[in-house]
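Entry 14. Structure prediction run on the chain below.
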Amino acid sequence: MLLLTLRLWWVLKIQQSVMMARDDDGVTFTGPGGNHASAWATYHRYKKTRKTFIVWQRHSRNYFIIPQRALPDDSIRQWLEQTLNSKLERSTWFFLI
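Output returned:
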């Protein structure tokens, strides 16, 4: 987990792209720092904010953030929200992100 976090930090620090593939089974991240795949069952909650989708595992630091601007169109955004809604619990927490 720490290694994955450091890899993602390094990718963001050098501002290189990370590709995300998602389907009904889970999500896969691919970038210069390596690959990581997780089933939706790994995560428990999600939150949609004005600018992002935040997905996390309860009682853990395991999370990821999807900027809405990274999604190519509204149909993908709606599909993602429907998938998250059917697989995870929607959080009622308030975020300023």
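The chain has a mean pLDDT of 80.
Filed with the rest of this week's runs.
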